[in-house]
Amino acid sequence: MIGAQGLAGMALSARDVESELQETVQQLLGRLKSHNLFQSGWDIAAFTVFFTFIGTVLVLMLLVLLHCCCCNSSSPPKRRPKGVDNLALEP
What we know:
Blueprint: H1 4-34, H2 41-70
Transmembrane segments: 44-70
Subcellular location: Membrane
GO biological process, one term: lipid droplet formation
C-alpha cells in the first residue's frame, strides 16, 4: 500500500510536471510572439531532419498507393525463359 508520504510525493511530482509544462508553453508562446522560433543552428537542423523524414515517409506511402491502385494485377506476369540457349547441343 502507498503511505501518506508516497501520496504526497506523487502529488508533488504532479505539481512539478504541471509547472514544467506551463513553463514550456510560456517559452513556446514567447518564441511565437517574437517570431524567433529557431534559436540556434541545432534547432534548424532538427527541424530539417524531422521534416525530411516525414516527407520521405509520405512519398513512400504515395508510391505504395499508386502501385496498389494503378497496377493491373489481374493478369499474370509474363514469363520469360531463363538462361541461354546452347545451340551446340542441338543435332
